[in-house]
Amino acid sequence: MLNSLSRFFMRRRNWSIPYAIFLLIFVVVPLLLIVAYAFTDEEGAFTLSNFRKFMMHPEAMNTFIYSIGIAVITTLVCLVLGYPAAYILSQKEFKTSKTMVVLFILPMWVNILIRTLATVALFDFLRLPLGEGALVFGMVYNFLPFMIYPIYNTLQKMDHSLIEAAQDLGANPVKVFTKVVLPLSMPGIVSGITMVFMPTVSTFAIAELLTMNNIKLFGTTVQENIYNGMWNYGAALSLIMLLLIGVTSLFTNEEDNAQNESGGVI
Length: 266
Hints:
Number of helices: 13
Mean pLDDT: 86
Largest sheet: none
Number of domains: 1
Low-confidence stretches: 262-266
CATH architecture: Orthogonal Bundle
CATH superfamily: MetI-like
Radius of gyration: 23 Å
Shape: globular
CATH topology: MetI-like fold
CATH class: Mainly Alpha
Number of strands: 0
Oligomer: single chain
Order of helices and strands: HHHHHHHHHHHHH
């Protein structure tokens, strides 16, 4: 018996069994349930009425489009703010870069709801109105580190001899950045965009707290339908959101692979 257990644990592939069981119970089964509920009605019969209801429901469609718009704006703002920060932190001359990176990541150790409530308190202290501006600010504040860190990692691991070679060939700083640094940092940019865009599309707590529930995002619509017992329609909305995230992830992975195959230099 002991010998059998010893042989079992000596095989490396057997150590993956607990993770496989975890994925099966908490990932695969819930996804299958979402698909099953999305394509059935309350009696359990197959139907496409849940998706037809979404297409014919102006409020749901508008909320879906609005959520994508907010996610795009948040991602762009995070990119504009995050790339310069990551670039500065990656420079060898910046001696306290590791400390600054930790300071950027430190807020992520606090629960997102607590951070959002702190943002509400900040706006209240400054007597600023809660609304769309507060929503974008809260999104950027919560997800900016997810943009900075992957770009920083990519820039830090970049082969600086390529920059020196470009400088030796007479390239000015603008040319060096646009032709060498920016292309080589694209994998980090793609990862950052993915890590910011995906949770922004699906979040609902931030919108509820920073707009006093006056602005709905698509995640809020899903949450409300499930909370009210409309599991089938809520599952259909969840599946639509999952498909959007899946398509985005597939697109960004293809861009990343193409960049790696091309060598990262234009």
